[in-house]
Amino acid sequence: MSEPESETVSPEASFGAMLQVTQTETQVREDDDDDGDGDAESTHEFKVDVCTATDMLLKEENIKELHKDQRDQDDINKQGSESNQTLSSSDVGSSTATVKILLMPERHMITVAFTIGLTILDLKKHFSLDLRVPSDIIQITLDDKSVDDDQTLIDIGVQPHGMIQFEMSSLDPENYPMRPVKPQQEYNMPDVITVRVQTDTDSYQDVVVEIERATRGKAFLGGYRHKVTKTEFHHAAVQTMPKKRPDRDTEMFSRDTQTVELKNQAQQCSKNASTQMTKIGCYVSNMEDKLITPGTYITAEEYHSKRLRAVITLQSYVRRWLAKCFTDSLRQAKEQRLAWLENERRRKKEEKEQQIRDEYHRRMNPESKADFDLLYNALKKWRMEEVERINVTVSGAERKAALCALLEQETQFISSIERHRMAAGTRNQDKAIQAFLNKCAEPKKWRAFDGKVTQMDTQFTIRAKELRDLYSSITRAQFTKDERLDVLLTLKHTVKASSRSEHKCKLTQDIVDLIDREVDLLMRGVKKSNLEGLRKRIATLFLQYIKTPAFNPQVSKFLQVPQDPADLKKNIYLCHGCNEYQSSTDFALKTNASAVGLCGRCLDLDNEARRREDFSLYKNLLRCLRESEAECSPEAKITYLLQEQDLRYLVDVLWGSQSALSGWKDLHDLLLVRWEKHLDWSPWNCILLTKDEAAAHLKLENIEKAYDVVVIRNVKQKHALARKYFSQIPAMAECLHDTEIQPAALSNLLVSKPITKETK
């Protein structure tokens, strides 16, 4: 180990430290060179032996060992008094040592006092805050060898109160360089200083002193001011910390800590006074004297009765004011309640009217599959009503004729619905193509840790965006002749460039031939109406060109048919209705289905031809259920296992398509909510209520006290039936807490029992 470095501490720096002074020698020197007016008024030179309280104890033990073994002590004195201390195992881990850190490549030295029981990782965390460098980026080496994070200073070989020097560097110098710590405005006392102590007449010893920061303000003890520089020097306050009393682990009681009862008592001090009157030899003027006539004497009883009447009067007015405030608050609450009821009634009325308008708009202008299911469901209801009316009113040949007329009218309605379907399909196809192109041209997005969304365009997304814009220009009809020629020329160059760079094919050649044909017809002055078929062929072929991954690589991620023939064999099933192989996503399966049945198109066709059912209401119920459960319990998965058919069985069969409390049958106003709100939603933990009833039900704390015994028994019965039905589904069987229901318990739920009540 190299010789300890000596550090000079200014007088100002010693204010924040508390040191124990063992010897002090003061010598006043006068400046002989000055003629009486020196640079300083007085100069003091202090020779101080500085050590901590721990060093004093260690020093006494060192003196005892010197008398026992002089030879060993001579070797120990060369290394300093800090390296020859014999400490117990518990004191070694809490002892400190001087750690010098050399920052590379700036070669800036930092000296700190560090506990030798801590690891190198703790040392990295200590310096990561000052250097603003993550601890995992910092690398500490000793003799050009990396030091592990789990090693302590004791493992490295550092002795208590010893000294060691490390080299610290950064694993990522470009992003996290090792910059020296900026010096502060004023000097701060370092954590460790080295003091040279005179032990004998000719021998000196270097002692490492740890600086203990003061926790209280420094007392002002005076000082000096330099005459020339006007610098002030204050006397240092040297004081050790008070020793803490040991805890005797005994509960002590003292009379000083008892509660004192305070008592106030007024005192009247005596005061001497005198009166001067007119007499012989003394005249007192009576010009300012007043004649006082005594009034009516008021007894104590009269005084207290008067005060009581005044208090009663004040109380009556205050009570009247409080009663008025209370009645005003009741009146205001009543008005608010009535206004709220009126707003709710108006809101419900507006929602009902809006619902009727939306349904009417869906019937008159159907766009989606759900709209056409609604039309076919309405047609089914109308047909059933007409058949019932015909069966009641007519019979025989007239009945057959009426049924034939009804069949003819139904056929006309179906034909009209299909015409609307074809028109909507054309409109939806254009929207689907535009949505498909926008999805291909959409840039890549990801969300950072701070919530900001970053977008990035790749070469494939840029290519898809150019093709999308070119397709939009081709399909637009509001173009002049010159603009149309420019668009066709751009399309021709794009197709030719891709055919030269990629490979020639029949598709690109057909597009080029059609473009040349339209250009030739435009130059001949052919009308736009005669060019509609040709332009549609160009748009169709160019859309096929866009959907080819060889010309548009980005589109390969969104094609339903995979390009790899090996992927076609995966997840492919045979539909028994159309006898075609379809992907697994084209089959609508129930939760209790054990085999693949009909595909989605066959099911829709069968529904329109036979059952004509409308599942839009059940879809809305399932959507509201999933949204509410996603807010309450994001990890719940039972709601996502249910399908529209399962929810229909739960609503129609188990709950009878009506509210469990009020019997309301409009499905637009019904919701499925939790029966016990602290448990996740499941078919055996739900209840069908209206929106207002559901909001009130979720606010209940105790269900047993809120509902009657009959209501609770009916709900439990439906829960038992739902548990029995859905327990057959393997995916939901895992979510059941109790998969088997005892027959006795089930009979108790299903059989109604008389309720006995005590009457007075």
From TrEMBL:
Per the UniProt entry, what species is this protein from, by scientific name?
Labeo rohita
Q: Which residues form the signal peptide?
A: none
Q: Which domain of life is it from?
A: Eukaryota
Polar residues: which segments have biased composition?
A: 78-92
- Give start-end positions of Acidic residues composition bias: 30-40
UniProt cross-references to SUPFAM superfamilies, sorted A to Z: Ubiquitin-like (SSF54236)
**Which intervals hold domain Ubiquitin-like?**
95-166
Is Coiled coil included in the keywords of this UniProt record?
yes
Q: Where is the composition biased (Basic and acidic residues)?
A: 65-77
Q: Where is this region: Disordered?
A: 1-46, 65-92
Q: Which UniProt keywords apply?
A: Coiled coil
Q: Which InterPro entries match?
A: IQUB, IQUB_helical, Ubiquitin-like_dom, Ubiquitin-like_domsf
Identify the CDD domains for this entry. Answer: Ubl_IQUB
User: What name does UniProt use for this protein?
Assistant: IQ and ubiquitin-like domain-containing protein
Q: Which residues form a coiled coil?
A: 331-358
One Pfam entry for this protein is: IQUB
